[in-house]
Every structure is written in structure tokens, then in C-alpha cells.
Design goal:
Blueprint lengths: L1 H18 L10 H17 L5 E6 L4 E6 L6 H16 L4 H8 L17 E6 L2 E9 L3 H18 L3
Antiparallel strand pairs: 1-2, 1-4, 3-4
């Protein structure tokens, strides 16, 4: 009887091991990040705005950061934090800014949440692959620049 139980357990483990697979996922890479940053930079230049453009992967790790000439150095950390916030919470940082403006002060205590517009998640096939954060001008202008990069993604990927 004990032997049968052991054999049954071994067959179950073998069956489970046979069906287990790793997931395949898309990942934001340096080349796509540079092209997205170029689209963001074009939007900034068109409006004569100097900004920092930052792209992170789905783990909020820095992939690419660009500081345009004459941009204040404080915008480096702000752009990075906007991008990280967008990844951490899978939503634009504007959602947090709007919540605070609407009286939800508790948002200010969320760990890792910067409630300033200008960070946008980057999605591919409905999955989070990273985020972009922009800082240097007014928050809504930062978001306009970041959105230009998001809008360019389909063209970059040939879709």
C-alpha cells in the first residue's frame, strides 16, 4: 500500500513537472527606449522645452536617461521617480496628482508614489513593459512630452 502511494506521488510530481513552463514576456530594451526618447525629445524641442526623459523597465530599473541642455539638475531624480511610480502602480502619475488635488491627502503616504503628472506606464499587448517619466517644465507639459513617446511606440514596433 505504501509503495502504491509513493508511486502515485511520483507520477503526480512527474505530471506536474512535465506541464510546467516559464512565461514568455516582452521586455523594453535599450534600442526601443532610445527611439521613444527621441520622439519625446522631438516634442520637447518643438515647444522649446528643456527636460529630462527617463525610461525604466517593468522592474523600475533605469534603461535610458537623457537630460537636455539647460535643464535643471533637480529634474533628473524627478523624472526617474515619475517613471518608477508609473511602473510600481501601473498607472499614470496624473492619477495620484488628481487624487491629491481632489482632497485624498492619504496618497501622499503611499510608499514610492510621486503624485506629479509626467509618468506614464508603457504597455505592449496589454502587459506592462516599463514606463517613461519626464520632468523639466509644467507637469501637464511633461505629460505631453511623455505621451508623444507612448504614441510613437506603435510606429517604432511597426504596428
Amino acid at each position: 500500500m505504501r509503495t502504491l502511494r509513493i508511486l502515485g506521488t511520483l507520477f503526480t510530481v512527474a505530471a506536474l513537472a512535465h506541464t510546467a513552463e516559464l512565461t514568455t514576456k516582452k521586455a523594453l530594451n535599450l534600442e526601443v527606449s532610445k527611439q521613444m526618447a527621441a520622439a519625446a525629445e522631438a516634442e520637447a524641442r518643438k515647444n522649446k522645452w528643456n527636460v529630462v526623459i527617463c525610461l525604466v523597465d517593468d522592474g523600475a530599473n533605469l534603461i535610458y536617461l537623457q537630460k537636455m541642455d539647460e535643464t535643471q539638475i533637480g529634474s533628473i531624480e524627478v523624472a526617474l521617480e515619475k517613471a518608477k511610480t508609473a511602473v510600481r502602480f501601473k498607472r499614470p502619475t496624473k492619477a495620484f496628482e488628481d487624487a491629491v488635488a481632489g482632497g485624498r491627502q492619504v496618497v501622499l503616504k503611499l510608499p514610492g508614489a510621486l503624485p506629479v503628472e509626467g509618468g506614464i506606464p508603457i504597455m505592449a499587448d496589454g502587459k506592462l513593459i516599463g514606463a517613461i517619466g519626464v520632468s523639466g517644465v509644467q507637469s501637464n507639459q511633461d505629460a505631453q512630452i511623455a505621451q508623444a513617446a507612448i504614441d510613437a511606440l506603435a510606429k517604432i514596433l511597426g504596428r
